[in-house]
From TrEMBL:
Residue span(s) of domain DUF883: 80-109
Protein name listed in UniProt: ElaB/YqjD/DUF883 family membrane-anchored ribosome-binding protein
InterPro entries named in the record: DUF883_C (IPR043605), YqjD/ElaB (IPR010279)
Family matches, as Pfam families: DUF883_C (PF19029)
């Protein structure tokens, strides 16, 4: 740790000079605080803007994904409907087997 020891070379240092230096340090600290406050406010604005942009991007992606999923579901439904129309007997058999399995599982509980 550094130590400052008076060496007697400047005995004319007065209390007034020290008070001026302290006042100057206080002013510098106040300016530093104001600068940090301004910096913090600017960073907050930047982060808000970035977050808002990210939210909008995610909303757009979510809407696109929902639309794509809706199209896939509609396609699968149309495929199942076509299969039932083309093979009605097989569809009835599959539905009956599925109903039987659901009945077995629910009866065991």
């Amino acid at each position: 740790m550094a130590r400052v020891e008076p060496n007697g070379s400047n005995p004319d240092t007065s209390v007034a000079d020290i008070e001026k230096q302290i006042a100057l340090l206080k002013a510098d600290i106040a300016d530093l605080g104001a600068t940090l406050s301004d910096y913090g406010q600017k960073q907050q604005a930047i982060l808000k803007s970035t977050a808002a942009d990210r939210i909008e991007t995610l909303k757009a992606k979510g809407a696109e994904n929902a639309d794509a999923l809706r199209k896939q579901v509609e396609s699968a439904y149309a495929g199942a409907e076509d299969s039932v129309r083309n093979h009605p007997a097989a569809s009835i058999g599959i539905a009956a087997a599925f109903g039987f399995l659901v009945g077995l599982v629910s009866a065991r509980k």
